[in-house]
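Quick check before the chapter quiz. The format below is the same one you will see on the exam, so make sure you can read both the input and the output lines.
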Amino acid sequence: MKIKKIFIVVNLIIICVLVLITFVLAKDTLGLYEIYQDLRFSFQVLRDPSIQADGRTFIETPFIDFTLDDIYGKAWSLHDDKAKMKIIILFNTDDCAGCLEEYRLWKKIDEIYADDLVSIVGINNDKSKNNLNSFIKTREIRFLVLHDPDNIIKKSMGFRFSPLRIILNDKNRIIDVEKSGGSLTKQKEILSYISSKLKKFRE
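Here is the expected output.
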């Protein structure tokens, strides 16, 4: 009888220890899972240009109403542009491999939507205007390009990438943010996206 009682007590102790271990492991697992989730979110923020540094999205964010000079020194303001959709390209000629992949797309959009439904505005942050002028001439860029040597737009909006393509709606709110570049298939998707967004203005 005494041995039976000892056996029961030992079993109870073992069960209590196992429950305690399970609880500790579960707590550690939850802690590790939270760390994993935080890391995954941080990597997403680092990689996704549509997410701000604090984790909020840029989508539906109003774009800063800026005024910058074009390459001829003439001032241009965002509120003066009455297009139903605006495509803003932030770029620096030194890091613009993505621009070189995509500049044909910009020209194509400029040709298709010559009816002022869409405007393309390039914003360049080179310190030297000569580099910018050479880039425009070499690539035969015909749409508006503004000079932002102090990087006002990128700093004010909190954009972390370059080159960057930002699409604004008729209220100058951001509806899409992506890194410039991509395959021809991706560029066709962008054209299709623009067309679908403008359908209501064509009807």
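If your answer matched, good. Residues 1-47 form one domain.
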